[in-house]
């Protein structure tokens, strides 16, 4: 059995900040941001919480799937920006939905979060343990970003996306591949609470996201291309046989480099990075929901999803829609 997506949903905060808005507050310009990243605007949480956005996206996915929250057996929620350490956003979403029969688990794999969570759902479904799983990717990156650091704050946005998966014999995830390289973790770093106890009071060193932009750029282009190549090869497919590539929306130039490497048709790589910025773990399900609602994905379409980011982590999925 395969994990097959039967419903999608997403949520974006109401407040939009354009590059022009940013240029009024810091030394930057629309031209610089668009030429380096493709980003024109991003949504930023003002009233919204991480769990609230996730629950809204999840409810929309359940409605799309025609499923009641009480039917869910598991909630897998990917985030690096929860509202609390305890309870997890996964448990908060369970409560908000009234998904009383679901076990709720949170997963931190940064921008690969949704892809890794979907792979985890696949493993549970393959093992025959569960058949009805909600997978969510949600981020409020705006609270982890240093708004005085123009090289990072222009990149990120907030939002949530969700998918309901059930077991299918012929459709859904056919194969996946996923990796981590913890030795390169410093390339994209944000500290948690430091050690404060009876014996030690450490200072918080890296309160906000710090990134080696060029290192991360090179990593992303190389590893995403490589993982897609591997997935295509072991499934006997050429890049032209894929109908749609849903890549993590970090940067339009990274996506363009992957297209060039695969010698693929650019029309098969839809984007929303220009409107949403990099929403980390939320970006793949946000784009997926946009495509699904627009009727862009047809039964039997071959789809590749790729996530990559902090950890470092990366991975790709091959699924039949
Ligand atoms: N506006 C104007 N100038 C800026 C700027 C901004 N928002 N941010 C940085 N600059 C300046 C720098 O200060 C530097 O100036 P200097 O030459 O006077 O020192 C110059 O632009 C070049 O900086 P650099 O960091 O070399 O730029 P870059 O071409 O590497 O682009 C990124 C920066 C972040 C856009 C690029 O490295 C990138 O896209 N990396 C991948 C990031 C990513 O996607 N991360 C998430 C992965 S999940």
Task: Report what the structure shows.
The protein is of the alpha/beta class. The chain folds into two domains: 2-169, Thiolase/Chalcone synthase (Peroxisomal Thiolase, Chain A, domain 1); 174-320, Peroxisomal Thiolase, Chain A, domain 1 (3-Layer(aba) Sandwich). It contains ten helices and 13 strands. A five-stranded mixed sheet has the order 1-7-6-4-5. The protein has a four-stranded mixed sheet with strand order 8-13-12-11, with helices on both faces. A two-stranded antiparallel sheet has the order 2-3. α3 packs across α4. The radius of gyration is 19 Å and the shape is globular. Coenzyme A (COA) binds at residues 28, 32-33, 36-37, 111, 150-151, 154-155, 211, 213-214, 216-217, 220, 250-251, 254, 278, 308-309.
- The number of domains is 2
Per CATH, the architecture of the largest domain is 3-Layer(aba) Sandwich
Shape verdict:
globular
State the separation between the terminal residues, measured CA to CA. 14 Å
- Strand proportion: 25-35%
Which hetero ligands occur in this complex?
coenzyme A
Number of helices: 10
Percent of residues in helical segments? 25-40%
Strand-helix topology:
Elements: E1 2-11, E2 15-18, H1 19-23, H2 30-37, E3 41-44, H3 50-65, E4 74-78, H4 89-97, E5 103-107, H5 113-126, E6 132-140, H6 150-153, E7 158-168, E8 172-180, E9 188-189, E10 210-211, H7 213-234, E11 244-247, H8 252-262, H9 273-276, H10 283-293, E12 302-309, E13 313-320
Parallel strand pairs: 4-5, 4-6, 11-12
Antiparallel strand pairs: 1-7, 2-3, 6-7, 8-13, 9-10, 12-13
Coenzyme A (COA) binds at residues 28, 32-33, 36-37, 111, 150-151, 154-155, 211, 213-214, 216-217, 220, 250-251, 254, 278, 308-309.
């Amino acid at each position: 059995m395969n994990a097959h997506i039967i419903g999608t949903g997403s949520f974006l905060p109401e407040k939009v900040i354009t590059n022009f808005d940013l240029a009024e507050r810091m030394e930057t310009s629309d031209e610089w941001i668009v030429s380096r990243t493709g980003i024109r605007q991003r949504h930023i949480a003002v009233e919204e919480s991480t769990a609230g956005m996730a629950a809204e996206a999840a409810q929309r996915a359940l409605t799309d799937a025609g499923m009641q929250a009480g039917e869910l057996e598991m909630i897998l929620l990917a985030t690096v920006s929860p509202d609390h350490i305890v309870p997890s956003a996964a448990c908060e979403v369970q409560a908000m939905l009234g998904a009383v029969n679901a076990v709720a688990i949170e997963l931190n794999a940064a921008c690969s979060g949704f892809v890794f969570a979907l792979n985890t759902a696949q493993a549970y479904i393959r093992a025959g343990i569960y058949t009805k799983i909600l997978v969510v990717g949600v981020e409020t990156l705006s609270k982890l970003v240093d708004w005085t650091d123009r090289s990072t704050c222009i990149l990120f946005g907030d939002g949530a996306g969700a998918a309901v998966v059930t077991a299918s014999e012929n459709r859904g995830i056919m194969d996946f591949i996923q990796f981590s390289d913890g030795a390169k973790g410093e390339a994209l770093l944000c500290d948690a609470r430091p050690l404060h106890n009876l014996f030690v009071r450490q200072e918080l060193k890296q309160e906000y996201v710090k990134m080696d932009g060029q290192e991360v750029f090179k990593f992303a282009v190389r590893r995403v291309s490589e993982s897609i190549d591997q997935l295509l090869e072991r499934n006997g497919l050429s890049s032209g046989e894929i109908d749609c590539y849903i890549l993590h929306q970090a940067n339009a130039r990274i996506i363009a480099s992957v297209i060039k490497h695969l010698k693929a048709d650019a029309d098969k790589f839809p984007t929303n990075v220009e409107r949403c910025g990099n929403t980390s773990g939320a970006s793949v399900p946000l784009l997926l929901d946009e495509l699904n609602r627009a009727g862009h994905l047809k039964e039997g379409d071959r789809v590749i999803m790729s996530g990559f980011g902090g950890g470092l982590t990366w991975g790709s999925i091959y699924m039949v829609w």
